[in-house]
Each structure stands twice: as C-alpha cells, then as structure tokens.
Design brief:
2 domains, mainly alpha, about 75% helix, about 300 residues
C-alpha cells in the first residue's frame, strides 16, 4: 500500500508539473500554440502544491517506519529544512504557490510563469535517484535530469495541444490549416527534443549505475522497467515518424480536398496513441523511483 501511494503521488506530480511547464512554454509550438486559459495554469499549480505536501508527508512517514507518533514537530522540521528531500519540496511548493497567487491576480507574465514552473519541475531532481549522486557527478546528474524533464514536458504538452487542435473539428478548413502549421512546427523542433531526451537519459543512466553496472542493472526489476520505458519511447518515436514523414505531407497535399478529413482522423488516432504512450512512460518513471538499480 505504501509503495502504491508513493507511485501514485509520483505519477500525478510528474504528469501535473510536466504539463504545467510544457503548456507555459506552449509545447515548443511558438505562435502556433493555442492560447492557454490562465485558470488551467492556476489549477495545475495548485494541484502541484497539494501533491507536493502529500509527497513530503508520505516520505516522512516512510522514513519513520510508518510510525505517525514519531512525526513530531522537531522531526518534521529537521526533515523539511535539513535534508535535500525536504528542501526540494519546500522550493517546489513555494514556486507553485507563488505561481497560483500571481495567476489569480493576473500579474503573471509568461516569462515569470515559465521560470516558476521550471523551478518547480527541476526541484524533482533532488527527490529521485539523482539526489543520491554526490559532488561534481551529482551536479551533472541533476542538471541532466532537469533538461530531461523539460524536454519531456515540451513533448507531452505539444501532444496534448495537438490533440486539442485535432479534436476541435476535423471538417473546418481553418482547423486543418492551424493543425498543419502546429504539426510542421512540432516536426521542426521534434528532433531537438528527442535528442535532448535520449542524451540526457543516457547520462542519467550512467550516473546511476555506471558503465560497469549496466549489465547487472538489467537483471533487476529496475532494469526491466527501464527496458519497458525504452520500448514505449521507441514506439512513440515510430508514431512521431509516421506523422512527420507520411501523414503531415498527406494532410498538406490534400488540404483543399475532401480527403483531408480522413487524414485528420488518422492523425487524431496517432496523436492520441502517442499521447497515451507518453503517460504510460510517466507511469513507468513513477515506478522506477521506488526501485533500486542494485541487485542488493
């Protein structure tokens, strides 16, 4: 039950904060991204505050062997202010709380929203396996983890935005044109995002298990989950390639014809499938954080 709670909280935290960062950054779609209602940003930030508090309390309870009586004021204060885990949660909750306040008062410009959201997401690098890395390796690992998270956030948010565009109306010509422009923009930045995810993912793995520990790590539950994550990632790449090299050119070629309805419907299915796979990846990531890469 304790593990399931930890996994559930981690999944909601990753999904919420990555969507928050990705949406604030427009999914990397630039001027082709539809406007995001400030209430959506405010809700995601507020949800992040509650989840962060829940994660901190669950972690503290786990550290005391699930002894609620041991969580007195002094213990909570020590875990909150004198451990990297606690400080990362405080930074996250503070950044998200400020974002909620600024959005509610209409005083949050896009740059401020982006900074606060990235700080909140980046703080998670001090709560997972990256937190165990020390000295220079620790800073490299955590920096790489932050880039990994932000790149993933852009991809996931872009998929959500594209799903929204393609679900509005597959018959309206202006919708098709807007969707095509967004898809072409996504294709342009996709290579950069994927490269960032792949490179930082490799750096993170080597920082966790080392070059000599790769083979041994694959024999663990952690390694098997990692292989599952890689398989899902490859499937996402396959769908992205299908969209970029076949469906988007077909949509562009049939933009003024009746066939574009069929192409848009196919794109809806592939984008929806890719989005579903993205959230499955987040579920696997949430589970990875509860497993040790060591055989011990």
């Amino acid at each position: 039950m304790e593990t399931l709670t930890a996994i559930g909280l981690r999944f909601v935290a990753y999904a919420d904060l990555m969507l928050l960062v990705g949406l604030v950054l427009g999914g990397g779609l630039g001027r082709y991204a539809p406007a995001i209602n400030p209430r959506v940003i405010g809700f995601a930030a507020a949800l992040g505050v509650f989840v962060t508090v829940g994660q901190f309390l669950a972690t503290c309870l786990s550290m005391t062997g699930n002894d609620i009586a041991a969580l007195d004021h002094e213990t909570l204060a020590f875990l909150a202010f004198d451990t990297p885990m606690g400080i990362s949660h405080i930074v996250r909750a503070t950044a998200l709380g400020l974002l909620v306040i600024l959005v509610s008062k209409g005083r949050a410009g896009r740059p401020i929203e982006a900074v606060l959201a990235i700080v909140a997401l980046g703080s998670m690098a001090w709560s997972g396996h990256a937190a165990a890395s020390e000295a220079a390796l620790g800073w490299v690992h955590r920096s790489s983890d932050i880039v990994h998270l932000v790149a993933g956030a852009l991809w996931i948010a872009a998929l959500v935005v594209l799903t929204r565009l393609l679900l509005v109306s597959v018959k309206a010509p202006e919708t098709a044109e807007q969707a095509l422009a967004a898809l072409e923009r996504f294709s342009a930045i996709g290579a950069v995002v994927v490269s960032a995810i792949a490179v930082t993912g490799l750096i993170n793995l080597l920082a966790i298990v080392g070059i000599g520990g790769l083979t041994a790590a694959l024999a663990t539950d952690y390694g098997r989950l990692l292989l599952l994550k890689l398989a899902l990632f490859v499937m996402m790449l396959g769908i992205a390639g299908l969209n970029r090299w076949r469906l988007v050119p077909r949509l562009k070629a049939t933009l003024d014809e009746k066939q574009n309805v069929a192409v848009l419907r196919t794109l809806r299915r592939t984008i929806a499938a890719e989005t579903g796979l993205a959230f499955l990846v987040l579920a696997v990531v949430a589970m990875l954080g509860t497993f040790s890469p060591s055989l011990e």
